[in-house]
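Page 42, continued from yesterday. The earlier attempt failed because a stray header line got pasted into the input along with the sequence. Redoing it now with the clean sequence only.
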Amino acid sequence: MPDKKPKTTVEPVAAAKQRAAEAGTKTTSAPATSAPTVSASATSAQADAGEGTGTKTGGFTSVRANVGSWIRHNFPGHENAFIGGACGLLAILLIYTIGLGKTLLIALFLVGGIAIGQIFDGDPKIIRAIRHLIEARNQ
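This time it went through. Structure tokens are written below.
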């Protein structure tokens, strides 16, 4: 079974410094020096986290962008249907594993947390929807 460790290469110090200075851009030629150093060639985790690139991006931001582009590429025009299906799958898995009551309690707290967050954001859509439903029944 092959190891899942990052591949390492031995390269001259100047080339390693040049690679670090360019922050991920590939070079076709690198000056050779006498002192070799070991550097990891698979730095995708650092690139995903924005380390060494001079930009500060969170890991979740890049994951969200990658998943979003994958959904748009594979399900063009049906992105929301895919997300709804994934939520439905998660709901049925929760109902099957922990039961209906606990799943409904989780959903209640989740909607409550989203409503509180929307109030702090200044756009309480859930609260307006609930008020609209209550006012429609009272008239």
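Notes: The mean pLDDT is 75.
Reminder to self: strip header lines before submitting.
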